[in-house]
């Protein structure tokens, strides 16, 4: 028996052992086990899995010699009461952090920075050269033949103004003129997929999950066509559509029409998900945040509203401009990841908003050429299309990085090509593909959007995409919402009272016991002394809450106040009595200490 | 300007794989959390879809099966003891009885265990009668099918002599394929002639018979030595060669019924027993003494030592719960396992010591992880009656149950595991799915899909009823405490509630 106990190793030292040492326990506790030549103490191995090497021995601190501290779990984990759960959460947290770090390290090597920084145009500012003076002809001359050939114009006279849209990998482009000319083609290979004349007004065009389907907002309804231009569906529920958006991970086609109804249509099942009335009339523009799936609508009264299919009212409604909002774009680049949104108003203002705080714009500047369209590139360049040209802004400066003049034309629809340095502009005379060096994300991920996608890989991606279709309920303003620990639900008084003490959560119990669990567990000092005397000097005194509970509270308080100031004879007598008592006590103490020598002789009576 | 060379991005030949470019930057992977969550949900659904734990039922018993004994060193041999005194040795891989001993005992079989000889062919089966007070040691070559020595077999020499020529004994009964070579073999081959087998079983005489005045409730063999322990109104240690017990182990002067007894697997001379007087007692064979004893609120029906952690002991109790004890600290159990709604009749650790299985009087089998108080899975079928014994197979792939309805059932220990060969690609997909479930198992729908188990209506109702009763009792206790003088009635920890006293 003792051998068994000994071979199992010591128990957790925190626990009290009540076992009395018996006579037998002085004998050798256990044999060493012979493994080959060496002797192994079994008790050593029995504790190994319960011990931990110091963090100083961690891999981070050994080979590299760096003083980088070992990864540690978030402090907030300490709040979890359950020991096992806490350990599990801490482990997960550390492994997440490690994965993130390793990913960043790997990515550094996978996608080595391009030579020449960001790959944009470089000029000598001191010599008076400016990047925005550089014209397209100069760029075409300087870049290689392959890149130069990406600059082209498609001229269509009298077809109305054109709208453009790229697929997610940037390989295919769809164009639609307001008079009904619709075409899709692989612009890199120069291969036309479909070209149709619809003979009615077309207001928007959007690719669905790949180049094989696209949706067109026509005069009365939304229609879906396939790669060959064959009409597949007439979506009758989308009446009089003006704008289209497609959420690729949710398989949701979103439209909004003159009546101001925002409609979400699930294209994988063909079911209309929701129809939400915006109550703000015909929206002037529509955009999606590609990182959160939130739809942004711009309205003619100057408000921008943010929508998801889960709520019949707008998540955010803000007055962005004086006058109609004409264009919205959200920034997908690395530094923003959907956080920043740009809006353009008919008042000529461009405003940049931070999605974490909608109170005020980050910055704003005005354009003289009546901005009507906006687009963000993969590296965060903002193109503003207006009358007679497009300006591209880099960084936070208000001087443009490039200006792309379109004489006597207005840029009705502009789109940066994903993973390329191209800006497509749709205007009244067709479309122009313009070169904007340094605008595109160079390193694509072929698991997400493959620029050189083959037929089989596309098939694979489409099937996997449907399997991983995200449910529309998961569209949230806060993209980190999923997997977070829920805050305590607010409860009514009756609900709280209905539960007994043991049915309450740990936090509630602690709170009831007068302990501030948040403060205690976060390692801060607890405010234990609630009484008047124990107030610390530094801490500001907590303001007493004026709770208006019950009847006539204010009257009671008034009386209470009044009572304090009343000075009558009994109060005076009482005060005097207390004072004399204190004096007597003090004297007694002093005599005891020897500070005063009480005279005890006959003269004492003279005091 | 971005300019990409086609050479880098297109396959070099028609058969070459498409080149892959990766960019792990988070902004190129939007919705990574919702997408992973969706994958986890799909994984959880697939896991439940593939969950078909029941493999087969081994019939043959005329009465209920009340005890099981796996051969700890062979993968696929298990013996079951019936209520009518019949002992059947089953082959799990062949899924049929290897040997039937119809009248091994008069009345119920109390316990079964295999002896500890290192050679398969020499190993014998010990059976103890619950009513007739005898222990019988059986040896037969039918226990090792596929044995080639025909002469020894046909001569019906099933004793020690037969094994002497057993040079060609095959080590595993189950691992052997059903080959043509063995078809002509009589009785002991893989293609068993059931008539001959039955005749063999009828004619089989025990190698040894040990007699006692009292019946036996349980029997367990020492891991290596030729000694075994029995549970009657005391714990007795026997030598295989002697007909009288070597020693009798009693705590104090107690003569209460001992329900079950088990040897420790690591410190092999230590054994533990549970008894009808609600106690669990530890003994050491070397000192020949009962070392210490704990008394609990309810009696335990079964016990099992953890095979990897020598100090961990599992008890299945009549109060529907299981308890693990660290025998270094017997003041409280180290974990309570709640879930059954009937007394726990049998429990057994998996060979890794990370999980265990329990069978209950409520007609269900539950699988548990050692460090979680809730069961990982619950198995039941319409036809399975009260479960009286359960055991893990030595490979940890399967779980065997013995129940009232006279069947030994084979269940997969992982309900959705695939039987049969698994390719590397498939395995990595399975492992990825498991990791996803583990990561998202606490969130939303993944949790409800992963944790939900459908149980028979009677059990469902019993669970509800029990929950209500426990809750009501606790609320009542709470109210009583609220209305009594402060500090008079202190709440007691759940783990301390079940204990009454520890005696040394």
TrEMBL record, chain A:
PROSITE patterns: WD_REPEATS_2 (PS50082), WD_REPEATS_REGION (PS50294)
Residue ranges of domain BING4 C-terminal in the record: 400-479
UniProt cross-references to InterPro entries, sorted A to Z: BING4_C_dom (IPR012952), WD40/YVTN_repeat-like_dom_sf (IPR015943), WD40_repeat_dom_sf (IPR036322), WD40_rpt (IPR001680), WDR46/Utp7 (IPR040315)
Localization in the cell: Nucleus, Nucleolus
Pfam family, one: BING4CT
UniProt keywords, alphabetically: Nucleus, Repeat, rRNA processing, WD repeat
Record field: compositional bias (Basic residues): 543-562
SUPFAM superfamilies hit by this protein: WD40 repeat-like (SSF50978)
Residue spans of the WD repeats: 318-354
GO-annotated biological processes: maturation of SSU-rRNA from tricistronic rRNA transcript (SSU-rRNA, 5.8S rRNA, LSU-rRNA)
GO cellular component: 90S preribosome; small-subunit processome
Domain of life: Eukaryota
Regions of compositional bias (Basic and acidic residues) in chain numbering: 486-514, 533-542
Stretch list, region Disordered: 1-38, 486-562
General function of this protein: Involved in nucleolar processing of pre-18S ribosomal RNA.
Protein name listed in UniProt: U three protein 7
Organism listed in the record: Dioszegia hungarica
From TrEMBL, chain B:
Renumbered ranges of WD repeats: 251-293, 337-378, 380-412
UniProt domain Sof1-like protein: residue ranges: 413-498
Keyword Ligase on entry: no
Annotated GO biological process: maturation of SSU-rRNA from tricistronic rRNA transcript (SSU-rRNA, 5.8S rRNA, LSU-rRNA)
GO cellular component: small-subunit processome
InterPro entries recorded: Sof1, WD40/YVTN_repeat-like_dom_sf, WD40_repeat_dom_sf, WD40_rpt, WD_repeat_DCAF13/WDSOF1
Sequence ranges of Basic and acidic residues compositional bias: 1-10, 486-504
Keyword Metal-binding tagged: no
Signal peptide span: none
Localization in the cell: Nucleus, Nucleolus
Residue segments, region Disordered: 1-31, 474-504
Taxonomy, superkingdom: Eukaryota
Keywords annotated in UniProt: Nucleus, Repeat, Ribonucleoprotein, WD repeat
The family this protein is said to belong to: Belongs to the WD repeat DCAF13/WDSOF1 family.
Name the record gives this protein: WD40-repeat-containing domain protein
Organism whose genome encodes this protein: Dioszegia hungarica
Lineage: Eukaryota, Fungi, Dikarya, Basidiomycota, Agaricomycotina
């Amino acid at each position: 028996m003792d051998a068994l106990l000994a071979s199992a190793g010591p128990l957790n030292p925190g626990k009290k052992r009540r076992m009395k040492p018996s006579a037998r326990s002085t004998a050798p506790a256990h044999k060493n086990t012979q493994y080959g030549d060496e002797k192994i103490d079994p008790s050593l191995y029995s504790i190994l899995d319960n011990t931990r090497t110091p963090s100083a021995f961690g891999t981070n601190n050994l080979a590299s010699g760096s003083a980088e501290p070992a990864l540690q779990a978030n402090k907030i984990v300490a709040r979890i009461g359950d020991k096992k759960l806490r350990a599990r959460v801490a482990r997960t947290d550390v492994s997440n952090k490690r994965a993130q770090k390793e990913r960043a390290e790997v990515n550094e090597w996978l996608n080595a920075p391009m030579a020449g920084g960001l790959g944009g145009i470089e000029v000598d500012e001191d010599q008076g050269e400016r990047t925005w003076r550089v014209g397209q002809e100069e760029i075409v001359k300087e870049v290689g033949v392959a890149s130069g050939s990406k600059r082209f114009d498609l001229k269509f006279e009298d077809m109305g103004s054109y709208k453009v849209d790229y697929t997610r990998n940037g390989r295919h482009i769809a164009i639609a003129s307001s008079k009904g000319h619709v075409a899709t083609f692989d612009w890199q290979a120069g291969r036309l997929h479909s070209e149709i004349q619809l003979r009615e007004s077309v207001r928007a065009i959007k690719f669905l999950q790949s180049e094989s389907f696209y949706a067109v907002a026509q005069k009365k309804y939304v229609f879906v066509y396939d790669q060959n231009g064959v009409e597949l569906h007439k979506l009758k529920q989308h009446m009089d559509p003006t704008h289209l958006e497609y959420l690729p991970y949710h398989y949701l086609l979103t439209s909004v029409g003159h009546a101001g109804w925002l409609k979400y249509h699930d294209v994988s099942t063909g079911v209309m998900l929701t129809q939400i009335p915006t109550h703000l009339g015909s929206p002037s523009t529509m955009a999606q945040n590609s990182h959160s799936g939130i739809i942004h609508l711009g309205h003619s009264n100057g408000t921008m509203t943010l929508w998801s299919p889960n709520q019949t009212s707008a998540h955010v409604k803000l007055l962005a401009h004086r006058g109609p909002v004409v264009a919205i774009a959200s920034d997908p680049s690395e530094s923003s990841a959907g956080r920043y949104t740009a809006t353009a108003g008919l008042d000529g203002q461009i405003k940049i908003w931070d999605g974490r705080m909608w109170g005020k714009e980050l910055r704003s500047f005005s354009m003289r050429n009546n901005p009507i369209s906006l687009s963000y590139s993969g590296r965060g360049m903002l193109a503003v299309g207006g009358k007679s040209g497009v300006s591209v802004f880099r960084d936070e400066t208000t001087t443009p990085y490039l200006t792309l003049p379109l004489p006597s034309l207005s840029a009705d629809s502009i789109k940066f090509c994903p993973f390329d340095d191209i800006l497509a502009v749709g205007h009244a005379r067709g479309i122009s593909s313009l070169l904007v060096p340094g605008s595109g994300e160079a390193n694509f991920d072929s698991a997400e959007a493959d620029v050189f996608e083959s037929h089989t890989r596309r098939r694979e991606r489409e099937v996997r995409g449907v399997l991983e279709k995200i449910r529309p309920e998961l569209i949230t303003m806060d993209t980190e919402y999923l997997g977070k620990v829920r805050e305590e639900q607010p409860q009514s008084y009756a609900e709280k009272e209905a539960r007994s003490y043991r049915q309450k959560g740990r936090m509630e119990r602690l709170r009831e016991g007068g302990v501030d669990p948040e403060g205690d567990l976060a390692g801060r000092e607890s405010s234990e002394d609630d009484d008047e005397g124990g107030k610390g000097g530094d801490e500001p005194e907590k303001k007493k809450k004026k709770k208006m509970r019950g009847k006539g509270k204010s009257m009671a308080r008034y009386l209470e106040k009044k009572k304090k100031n009343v000075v009558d004879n009994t109060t005076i007598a009482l005060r005097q009595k207390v004072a004399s008592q204190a004096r007597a006590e003090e004297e007694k103490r002093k005599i005891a200490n020897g500070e005063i020598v009480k005279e005890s002789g006959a003269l004492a009576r003279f005091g | 300007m971005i300019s990409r060379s086609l050479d880098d991005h297109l396959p070099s030949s028609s058969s070459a794989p498409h080149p892959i470019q990766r960019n792990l930057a988070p902004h190129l992977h939007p919705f990574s959390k919702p997408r992973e969550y969706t994958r986890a949900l799909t994984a959880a659904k697939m896991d439940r879809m593939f969950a078909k734990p029941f493999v087969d039922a081994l019939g043959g018993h005329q009465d209920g099966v009340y005890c099981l004994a796996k051969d700890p060193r062979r993968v696929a041999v298990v013996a079951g003891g019936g209520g009518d005194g019949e002992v059947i040795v089953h082959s799990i891989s062949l899924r049929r009885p290897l040997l039937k001993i119809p009248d091994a005992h008069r009345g119920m079989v109390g316990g079964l265990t295999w002896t500890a000889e290192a050679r398969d062919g020499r190993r014998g089966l010990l059976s103890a009668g619950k009513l007739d007070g005898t222990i019988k040691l059986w040896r037969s070559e039918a226990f090792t099918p596929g044995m080639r020595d025909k002469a020894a077999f046909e001569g019906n020499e099933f004793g020690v002599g037969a094994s002497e020529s057993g040079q060609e004994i095959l080590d595993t009964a189950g691992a052997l394929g059903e080959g043509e070579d063995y078809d002509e073999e009589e009785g002991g081959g893989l293609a068993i002639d059931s008539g001959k087998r039955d005749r063999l079983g009828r004619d089989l005489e025990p190698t040894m018979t040990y007699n006692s005045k009292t019946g036996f409730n349980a029997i367990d063999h020492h891991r290596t030595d030729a000694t075994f322990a029995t549970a009657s109104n005391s714990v007795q240690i026997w030598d295989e060669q002697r007909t009288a017990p070597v020693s009798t182990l009693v705590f104090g002067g107690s003569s209460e019924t001992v329900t079950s007894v088990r040897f420790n697997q690591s410190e092999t001379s230590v054994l533990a027993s549970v008894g009808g007087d609600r106690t669990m007692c530890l003994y050491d064979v070397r000192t020949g003494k009962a070392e210490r004893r704990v008394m609990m609120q309810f009696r335990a029906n079964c016990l099992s030592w953890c095979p990897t952690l020598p100090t961990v002991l599992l008890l299945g109790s009549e109060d529907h719960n299981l308890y693990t004890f660290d025998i270094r600290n017997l003041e409280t159990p180290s974990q309570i396992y709640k879930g059954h709604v009937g007394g726990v009749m049998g429990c057994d650790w998996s060979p890794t010591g990370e999980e265990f299985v329990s069978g209950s009087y409520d007609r269900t089998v539950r699988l548990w992880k050692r460090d979680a108080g809730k069961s990982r899975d619950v198995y039941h079928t319409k036809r399975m009656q009260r479960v009286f014994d359960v055991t893990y197979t030595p490979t940890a792939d399967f779980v065997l149950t013995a129940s009232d309805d006279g069947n030994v059932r084979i269940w997969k220990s992982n309900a959705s595991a695939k039987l049969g060969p698994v390719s590397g690609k498939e395995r990595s997909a399975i492992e990825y799915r498991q990791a996803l479930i583990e990561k998202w198992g606490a969130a939303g729908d993944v949790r409800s899909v992963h944790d939900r188990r459908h149980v028979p209506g009677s059990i469902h109702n019993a669970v509800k009823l029990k929950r209500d009763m426990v809750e009501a009792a606790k609320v009542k206790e709470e109210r009583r405490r609220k209305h009594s003088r402060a500090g008079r009635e202190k709440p007691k920890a759940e783990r301390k509630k079940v204990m009454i006293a520890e005696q040394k």
